[in-house]
Design goal:
elongated, 2 domains, two-stranded antiparallel ribbon, 5-stranded parallel β-sheet, alpha/beta, 20% strand
Length: 228
């Protein structure tokens, strides 16, 4: 089982998604586990405040290192096999290969680099406001990851995205292993009944090749329309 630990000020923003559908069922089947850690519960500030003014000036507030480190330390505990992930536009672009490598952390398998991964816990540090004190990433030896060439208001959506992508590679999460896009010939275009869809006076048909029964031609069509 792979255990995802999320350090976030707003667990309620992604918890419903992670409890639903395939990811929710994966937790029920104990294929994966998700835990949350709110830095506000670990701050030494008597008012529960975790944001401070940035050194050097500038707009917004920065999340203090002490509360973030204490929350992360709770997640890490005495674990020896874990990986800490920070989300940053300057980080390495997250992709399917990275998702598979992270999934390998929960099982005996070989990564794309040919090494057997040992980590069983993945800890996400979710920033907010103007970010997290840079010393947190330095102390935790965190890996910087970007989910796209844009900036979001927080790290919660990236965390949910990575968990979803990684969980698909954990055996037993998907109903069939063939559901993995990179293990079968897949297409960005899929169709189901009816054969002819009538919508606002127009007819939209399923490509004839998919109804032909000619598996060779169907596979060729799927390759030609494959998106990844």
């Amino acid at each position: 089982m792979i255990h995802f630990h999320i350090v976030t000020l707003f667990p309620e923003s992604i918890e419903p998604y992670l409890k639903a559908s395939i990811i929710g069922k994966a937790q029920q089947k104990k294929k994966i586990k998700v835990s949350f850690y709110d830095p506000k519960d670990y701050t030494r500030d008597k008012y529960g405040r975790v944001d401070r003014r940035p050194y050097g000036g500038g707009p917004g507030m920065v999340l203090e290192p002490d509360a973030m480190l204490r929350a992360a330390s709770k997640a890490i505990g005495k674990k020896k096999n874990f990986e800490v992930i920070f989300f940053s536009p300057a980080g390495k672009q997250f992709d399917e290969s990275m998702a598979k490598d992270l999934a390998c952390a929960s099982q005996t398998c070989t990564t794309r680099k040919g090494k057997t991964a040992l980590s069983k816990h993945i800890i996400f540090i979710c920033g907010h406001y103007e970010g997290i004190d840079a010393r947190v990433a330095e102390i935790l030896k965190a890996k910087l990851i970007s989910v796209g060439p844009y900036v979001l208001t927080g790290g919660e959506l990236p965390a949910a995205t990575v968990i979803d992508a990684v969980a698909r590679f954990v055996p037993g999460v998907l109903g069939k292993a063939e559901s993995l896009e990179n293990s079968r010939v897949s297409s960005s275009e899929v169709y189901t009944r009816p054969d002819v869809l009538e919508w606002k006076g127009k007819k939209y048909k399923v490509p004839e090749v998919l109804k032909s029964g000619n598996h060779a031609k169907i596979e060729e069509w799927k390759k030609s329309t494959r998106s990844i």
